[in-house]
Amino acid sequence: DRLVVLISGRGSNLQAIQDACARGQIPGRIVGVISNRPEAAGLEIARRAGLTTQVVDHRLFSSREDFEIALSEAIAKWSSDWIVLAGFMRAFTPGFVDRHRGRLVNIHPSLLPAFTGLHTHRRALQAGVCWHGATVHFVTAELDGGPIIAQAAVPVAPEDDEATLAGKVLAAEHRLYPQALAWLCRGQLVLDGESLRWREFPPM
Ligand code: GRF
């Protein structure tokens, strides 16, 4: 399968996905990387891996719709099977989400439906949860609300602060996202209406 990865920043998940493609864990390859920020460090990671990159700077567009038209054109050029959001920090309009429905996936740094939105690690610590983690999900019009594909939990230790907890969750993300993308590329699950349909459930 063909993957387009959308980033806004550091790009460590992009790196994990690229590594998983290279070692054959994901039966697919990254055909393009798009950043909405020209200064994203992840662009350098992509270039070093020999991947094709493009910047679609949201600040150059007067409306969200115009930005998304440019983004859709960039994506269409690579005729990808999957649009993989990896630290992409822009919310989409329902129109964009509908156009790419079932092919658009995201990773979020919490055990959804807990802690949608930003600052998830800080909020998890404030809430005093014992377990935190990450979620890969299909993107629907509801922010961080689409059907859940996979989750990884990490225990919260009494001595954890925001930084140590973020590190643990990120390490879990780097295992989780490649696994979920491997299932998707192998056609083991699809988005069917509002919910997931497994064709071949992975062994527990
Ligand atoms: C990750 O924590 C991801 O869950 C969130 O943004 C962060 C991206 O990190 N959506 P990176 O750019 O992949 O290093």
Automatic annotation (TrEMBL):
Function: Catalyzes the transfer of a formyl group from 10-formyltetrahydrofolate to 5-phospho-ribosyl-glycinamide (GAR), producing 5-phospho-ribosyl-N-formylglycinamide (FGAR) and tetrahydrofolate.
UniProt protein name: Phosphoribosylglycinamide formyltransferase
Residues noted as binding N(1)-(5-phospho-beta-D-ribosyl)glycinamide in the record, renumbered to the chain: G11, S12, N13
Keyword vocabulary terms for this entry: Purine biosynthesis, Transferase
Site entry: Raises pKa of active site His: D144
Pfam families (UniProt xref): Formyl_trans_N
Lineage: Bacteria, Pseudomonadati, Pseudomonadota, Acidithiobacillia, Acidithiobacillales
Enzyme nomenclature, EC number: 2.1.2.2
Reaction(s) this enzyme catalyzes, per UniProt: N(1)-(5-phospho-beta-D-ribosyl)glycinamide + (6R)-10-formyltetrahydrofolate = N(2)-formyl-N(1)-(5-phospho-beta-D-ribosyl)glycinamide + (6S)-5,6,7,8-tetrahydrofolate + H(+)
Xref: SUPFAM superfamilies: Formyltransferase
One GO MF term attached to the UniProt entry: phosphoribosylglycinamide formyltransferase activity
